[in-house]
Automatic annotation (TrEMBL):
Record's protein name: GTP-binding protein Sar1A
Signal peptide per UniProt: none
Organism placement in taxonomy: Eukaryota, Amoebozoa, Evosea, Eumycetozoa, Dictyostelia
GO BP term, pick one: intracellular protein transport
Species of the source: Heterostelium pallidum (strain ATCC 26659 / Pp 5 / PN500)
Cellular compartments annotated: Endoplasmic reticulum membrane; Golgi apparatus membrane
Subunit structure: Homodimer; upon association with membrane. Part of the coat protein complex II/COPII, composed of SEC23/24 and SEC13/31 heterodimers, that it helps recruit and assemble on endoplasmic reticulum (ER) membranes at ER exit sites.
GO MF annotations in UniProt: GTP binding; GTPase activity; metal ion binding
Residues reported to bind GTP: 32-40, 73, 129-132, 172-173
Stated role: Small GTPase that cycles between an active GTP-bound and an inactive GDP-bound state and mainly functions in vesicle-mediated endoplasmic reticulum (ER) to Golgi transport. The active GTP-bound form inserts into the endoplasmic reticulum membrane where it recruits the remainder of the coat protein complex II/COPII. The coat protein complex II assembling and polymerizing on endoplasmic reticulum membrane is responsible for both the sorting of cargos and the deformation and budding of membranes into vesicles destined to the Golgi.
Length: 190
C-alpha cells in the first residue's frame, strides 16, 4: 500500500449571492492509493482545463502546486502528512473505480482518514476515477466504499460540525466528472 500526497494551492472564483466574484486560495490534499490517477488529475488542473463551461468555477492558470510528496505506507510517513491536517481546506480522495479488487484496501484508508479527529470538519470529495474503463456504476462504487450516506450533490446547508462528503464518478483522461466534484467542494470552502 502506498499513498501519494500532493498539497496544492489554487485560486478560484466563486459567485457570491451579491454576484461579486472573489478569489479563493485553497489548500487541498490529494490522497488515494497508487495508480488512482492523482498525478494525472494534478496535471490536468495545472493545465487549467478543469471545466471550460462553468462560469461559477474557474481555476486560475496555472495552478500553483506548492508541494508534492510521494509517501510510502510507513507510520513515520503518515505522521508526516498528518502535519498537514491542521491547515488543509479539503481532501480529495481518489479511487480507481476500475479496480474493484482494491476497493477494500482503499476503503480501509478512507475510513482511517474519516475517523481522524483532526479532519472531523474537513470536506471530503471522493472521486471514483477511470469510469471510461469499466463503467462502474456509482451505486456499486458507493456500496463497496461504504459511502451510501453522503451530503448530496447540490449545495446542501449543513449544521455546524457536520462534515461535507460526496462521491463523484469521473474520468480524468476523458475530462469528465471531476469538475462537478470541485464545484460541489467549493460550496464548502470558506
Ligand atoms: N483509463 C484511464 N486511465 C487513467 C485515468 N486517470 C489516470 N489514468 C491512468 O492511470 C495510471 C495511474 O495514474 P497516476 O495519475 O499516475 O496515478 P497516481 O494516483 O498519481 O499514482 P501513484 O503516483 O502511483 O500514486 C496512469 O497510467 C494514468 O494515465 C482515467 O480517467 N482513465
Amino acid at each position: 500500500m502506498s499513498f501519494y500526497v500532493a498539497t496544492i494551492q489554487f485560486d478560484w472564483y466563486r459567485r457570491k449571492k451579491a454576484d461579486r466574484l472573489y478569489n479563493k486560495n485553497a489548500k487541498i490534499l490529494f490522497l488515494g492509493l497508487d495508480n488512482a490517477g492523482k498525478t494525472t488529475l494534478l496535471g490536468v488542473l495545472k493545465d487549467g482545463r478543469l471545466s471550460q463551461n462553468r462560469p461559477t468555477f474557474h481555476p486560475k492558470m496555472p495552478v500553483n502546486i506548492s508541494q508534492t510528496y510521494d509517501l510510502g505506507g510507513h507510520e513515520t510517513a503518515r505522521r508526516l502528512w498528518k502535519d498537514y491536517y491542521t491547515s488543509v481546506d479539503a481532501i480529495v480522495f481518489m479511487v480507481d473505480s476500475s479496480a474493484p479488487q482494491r476497493f477494500e484496501e482503499s476503503k480501509r484508508e478512507l475510513d482511517a482518514l474519516l475517523s481522524s479527529d483532526e479532519l472531523s470538519n474537513v470536506p471530503f470529495l471522493i472521486l471514483g476515477n477511470k469510469i471510461d474503463i469499466a463503467g462502474t456504476s456509482e451505486e456499486k462504487f458507493r456500496a463497496s466504499m461504504g459511502l451510501t450516506q453522503t451530503t448530496g450533490k447540490d449545495k446542501v446547508p449543513l449544521n455546524p460540525g457536520v462534515r461535507p462528503i460526496e462521491v463523484f464518478m469521473c474520468s480524468v483522461v476523458r475530462r469528465f466528472g471531476y469538475g462537478d466534484g470541485f464545484r460541489w467542494l467549493s460550496n464548502y470552502i470558506n
